Amino acid sequence: MDRDLLRETLERRGEPRYRAGQVWAWLARGAGSYAEMTDLPATLRDALERELPLSTLELEREARASDGTVKALLRTARGNPVEAVLMRYRDGRRSLCLSSQSGCPLTCSFCATGRMRFAGNLSADEILDQALHFRRNGELDHAVFMGMGEPMMNLDAVLEACTLLPGLGITNRRTAISTVGWIPGIERLSASGLPIRLALSLHAPEDELRSALMPVNDRYPLAEVLDACRADHAIRRRTVFIEYVMLAGVNDRFEQAVALARLLSPREAFKVNLIPYNPTDSHLQGSGRDAIAGFRTALESRGVPVTVRLTRGREIAAACGQLAAGAAA
Ligand code: SAH
Prior knowledge:
Elements (H helix, E strand, L loop, with lengths): L2 H10 L5 H11 L13 H10 L6 E7 L5 E6 L5 E8 L5 E4 L3 E2 L17 E2 L2 H12 L6 E4 L9 H10 L10 E5 L3 H10 L4 E5 L5 H7 L8 H15 L3 E7 L7 H10 L6 E7 L12 H12 L5 E3 L21
Parallel strand pairs: 4-7, 7-8, 8-9, 9-10, 10-11, 11-12
Antiparallel strand pairs: 1-2, 2-3, 3-4, 5-6
This protein binds S-adenosyl-L-homocysteine.
S-adenosyl-L-homocysteine binds next to strand 8 and strand 10.
């Protein structure tokens, strides 16, 4: 919903101000048309139906995986592609993976989004419309900014969206922002005081390898990024999740687990999330089950809490790092 246009349209028609709030409340509860908004006058519902699209995004197609994951390919008014994913878990959790940009300006070598054309930042409304799209099909409880783009490079829009997500059932505590380690963004999140989870895509325990995988490391090197995360933990007291994508023969050796464990102090500030690699058109191979298990044990025996990410939606290219709007499929 273009909220500015909603306000203007209502004002032009001489409607009281609270109407905008009524429309928003319906959308946040999953309304898929103005016709459902029964506390608005019928003439107003008809007028809005004619004049104001319900979403800033148009659905181009949707794919469903056998594990219940749904991926939507949406387009902005300018025609830029945006992908969003709904993940359903056995415990009933329904978690959204949201995009903050169309494409991504960064060029991490293992990520499909980094190889598509970067088309720019999304507005707060375009971020919220991804969530509203899935809200029409049921309740939501978690969101992660782990779709296309680098959320910390579009933090105003991301935080604005986060102020409205609770109305859809997604509190800030159940929202995570994942970053390549964009320090100015991490510092602003710390200063915001919001209880949003910070997740850092680390992927390598030393600068040379990290720069090879993630060129942004030349700008914001490992030690400085981890300092920013420690400072954030000291201020907001939320555990920082360290994302580590498991690449066979690249970053999955025992010594690398030891080096990673050494970096993560104080222990209570961090938790590692090992990510099985999802295939893209890069030459990289994911680590096997045993390598991931061994890496996990090496970390755990050094006191580092570890989880291994459940892979969702791989068959529809909806898993981590696969969002490329069909470009790399
Ligand atoms: N730009 C932010 C948000 C994207 S989050 C960031 O990088 O953190 C997407 C997560 O999936 C990141 O941790 C990213 O490094 C990881 N990822 C990228 N490509 C992947 C792939 N092919 N398989 C598994 N994880 C991948």
